[in-house]
Design brief:
Blueprint: H1 3-9, H2 19-42, H3 51-69, H4 74-87, E1 105-106, E2 113-114, H5 133-149, H6 153-165, H7 169-184, H8 189-206, H9 215-231, H10 240-253, H11 259-284, H12 292-301, H13 310-328, H14 337-347, H15 358-364, H16 367-385, H17 388-396, H18 405-422, H19 426-443, H20 449-459, H21 470-476, H22 483-489, H23 492-509
């Protein structure tokens, strides 16, 4: 083969998406631009609001459109926020006329001097409206996920569920749902869904099932996607959205939702919902009988890992210690859970401990998610600074102060859930939902910060109505259920979560009010 042939056959870069995908992305960009321009220049500003409120609404909706259509990469949309907020006057690049603080003493001894108050300022700019708290937590989450996924630990959990359940369909689904849910509390939801759904599909194949015809295959698809998402709400490290909600509540209301408060509230809700969702799946799908030899085939595949390795034991001990200290921060304010998580992440890489490699860590980190969270924090602070949310809530929920408290909770849950159906990405969903709840809380004091964070982190993270959410899509892509069957039978786990949140949420969080 000549040089010319080698060059002609070489592929440079990643192939572009097909024409339809590129056309849809372009349409998304155009619609986002039109929406922003309409809010910025065409729509009249309601009485009592500054024009920056209309600008903020335009930026918010334009960003949601770009995130949902993936017109441009997530990170580019985030950077766009940092330019549009100052350009439209919502937040400055750097406010040199900030509020002066008291004089500051600099130097020491004879060289000490006090700066005049007028020369010392609190800087307020678009660049200090995002907290690094959540991204630092995220690094720990990705470290845990990378360490666990580089070992057989997830498969040991799946094997234990299989051994306990036997070939009893109901027990199998409950144990699978619980196993997937519990695992998802500590590693990536996508990873938990992929592992359990993969094992479930292997059982179907060994059982002679046919894709889109096997009720067993359909059931595993819905079960694993739903319980992986539900389990992710259980702990602050289960999903980066949980930490974003905690951070937004503190920023907007000054109320700190602690690590322990989140766990005490959400672990029971996640477990109860996972059990009920598993029972629903067992009832809704008329599954064929599982042959004992089909289970044996899968169990044999999961039995090759031998005894637990030293590295697996180290990972478990390391995680229990870090997680335990973070829990203790609820009762010992001197403990900074963010610093604990950061130190925990550093320890994982110390030679001699070596819980995971740099390559495993890099593979587990989603910089898109980190940048998205940073951008959402900045955007929501800008939107709230204009008074837009307070104005909108005052009009839409004018009588909320007179409503029974349970009605307030139902409205918050349903609104957040519907928003997540329409916006299949968690952070943009809570960008809209949480500020609305902040406005309601101003009229209904019983609607406390922990409950607001819990509703946002659960109903803004879990939706099985459509297989467009990333976690549901992970299961749906296995191809064992049709879109029609999904639409008919996959939505109840989400409604079950709504009902459990409405019942248990106020009861548990009432202790933290």
């Amino acid at each position: 083969m000549g040089t010319e042939d080698v060059v002609s056959k070489h592929t440079f870069g990643t192939p572009f998406p097909d024409a339809k995908t590129q056309r849809n992305r372009l349409i998304g960009i155009i619609i986002a631009a039109i929406v922003f321009l309409i809010f910025q220049f065409a729509l009249p500003t309601p009485e009592g609001l500054p024009h920056t409120a209309m600008s903020a609404a335009g930026i918010l909706f334009a960003c949601i459109i770009l995130w949902c259509t993936e017109g441009v990469p997530f990170t580019i949309t985030v950077v766009l926020i940092y330019f549009l907020l100052p350009i439209t006057g919502i937040l400055p690049y750097s406010d040199v006329t900030g509020v002066p603080v008291d004089g500051v003493i600099v130097g020491a001894g004879d060289a000490a001097q006090t700066l005049e108050p007028a020369k010392v300022y609190v800087t307020n700019s678009v660049f200090n409206q995002s907290s690094l708290l959540v991204p630092i937590y995220c690094l720990f989450v990705f470290t845990v996920s990378g360490a666990v996924m580089s070992t057989p630990i997830p498969y040991r959990v799946a094997k234990a569920a299989l051994n306990f359940a036997g070939n009893n369909i109901v027990k199998l689904f409950v144990m699978f749902g619980l196993g997937c849910s519990v695992l998802s509390m500590f590693i990536s939801d996508l990873a938990a869904s992929a592992i359990f759904c993969g094992i479930g599909i292997s059982i179907c194949e060994a059982n002679g099932g046919v894709a889109k015809k096997s009720e067993l295959g359909k059931a595993f698809t819905v079960l694993c996607g739903s319980t992986a998402a539900i389990g992710g709400i259980g702990t602050p490290v289960g999903n980066s959205l949980n930490m974003l909600c905690m951070s937004m509540v503190k920023s907007a209301t000054g109320v700190e939702v602690t690590f322990g408060q989140w766990c005490v509230t959400m672990i029971p809700i996640a477990i109860v919902t996972s059990i009920l969702a598993s029972l629903y799946v067992a009832k809704a799908f008329k599954c064929e009988e599982i042959k004992p030899e089909a289970l044996d085939v899968v169990k044999d595949k999961l039995s090759d890992y031998g005894k637990m390795s030293t590295r697996e034991i180290k990972i478990i001990v390391w995680f229990v210690i870090v997680f335990g200290i973070c829990l203790a921060s609820t009762w010992v304010p001197a403990i900074n859970s963010m610093l604990v998580c950061f130190i925990g992440a550093v320890i994982a890489f110390i030679p001699g401990i070596s819980l995971l490699t740099k390559e495993d860590f890099d593979a587990s980190v989603s910089w898109d998610i980190i940048m998205l969270i940073i951008g959402v924090q900045c955007l929501i602070n800008g939107v709230m600074a204009t008074g837009l949310i307070t104005w909108a809530v005052g009009i839409i929920f004018a009588g909320a102060a007179e409503w029974p408290f349970i009605v307030v909770v139902i409205v918050a849950v349903v609104i957040t859930g519907i928003l997540h159906i329409l916006i299949p990405i968690g952070p943009p969903t809570v960008t809209v939902a949480l500020p609305v709840m902040f406005g309601i809380a101003a009229m209904v004091p019983e609607f406390n910060g922990t409950l607001i964070a819990a509703i946002g982190g659960s109903c803004g993270a879990v939706t099985s109505f459509l297989p467009f959410d990333a976690i549901m899509l992970c299961s749906y892509k296995y191809g064992w259920i049709s879109m029609g069957d999904w639409l008919k039978k996959a939505w109840p786990p989400t409604v079950i979560l709504w009902i459990v949140m409405i019942i248990l949420g106020p009861i548990i969080t009432g202790f933290f009010a």
